[in-house]
Amino acid sequence: PTPIFFESDLRSMHPKPNPALEVQDEILLHFGTAPGVLLVEVTADNDTDLVYRIHEITTYLSTSQLKAVGVKEVLGLGSLLPDERTLEPKTIPETDVDQVVADFKQAVRNSPFAPETFDGYISYLQTLLNPSNSPTIADLNQYPELADRFLPTNQTGDLSQSLLVVLVDRILEKRDERDLIITSIQDAIDEVPGATLTGVSVLGYESELLVRRDLLVLVLFAAVAVGIFLLFMFRRIDDLFLLLIPVGFGLTFVLMTMSLTNTGFNLINLLAIPLLIGIGVDDGIFLMSIDRVRRNQKSNKSAETYAASCHAITMTTLTTSLAIGALAFTSVPAIAALGWMTAIGVFGCLIATIGLLLPILLLRESRSQT
Length: 370
Hints:
about 60% helix
């Protein structure tokens, strides 16, 4: 048996077989491309601060420590626009730039090539030799194919928002690798104002944290709510403990089966726990209600009454198990686990109802008659 754990392979949420995921693994194996993408939303007060902040974040995400955990490349405005704070002052006089351009034009005129074909290069040469003419966001907006990748398309005036694309060389469907990368990036940009890590993988990470943190609280809340309701209806603490025998056994049965089959919890099959709490008490309620009616009426036909009731309980429990258990044949492992876990839990409740609760009730009846 193995301890109960949370499933580390998030691919259990995807259908199997899955050619798309298999091809992704092959591409990663043979080509070494980045299979995972994370996004960093960056906000600032104006264009200039936005570029500065993006360069700052890019520096934080390009350290050897982050590369070691899987960050492969960071793409954004920092890849297209320079950080003017680090630019060296202009060292070439304007007259020298003009002379270089004039000499180049003269050389072209003396060559067999058509001079007009070099007009674009001459413009580039003037920009190259003049560091003060560094490109800005306004220049980038002239190229929508590039700008739309990192800048919002519906914003006017000073731009205050942009995206950084973080490529990672790890499979984000693996929980351990995903969590390490996400927490490392979050720690690196934590002190940078206006930087927020996001993306589908980050949303999944945050959702899992909430579920894992609140699972025990929710299960206890469900158990307490059911217990209070049953205590209100039956008004006897001993009857309440008897009612909870089937659901307690059913939950234990499920956990033992998960341990023996090395099955972990995921965001889907976690639903089996509150479902069993709600469904598992049904069999006990039936028997306890029959026991209460028999005691109130002082009936001596307990054997016939329990026999008919156990037959009905068995039939309804088995039909419930079969209906929910049909989910076990789906191609999505997480949903399949929900199906067989719930079916096994409901069947375990039936075993406890017939094998434990019923003998206890019969024993209590025989003692009350002596």
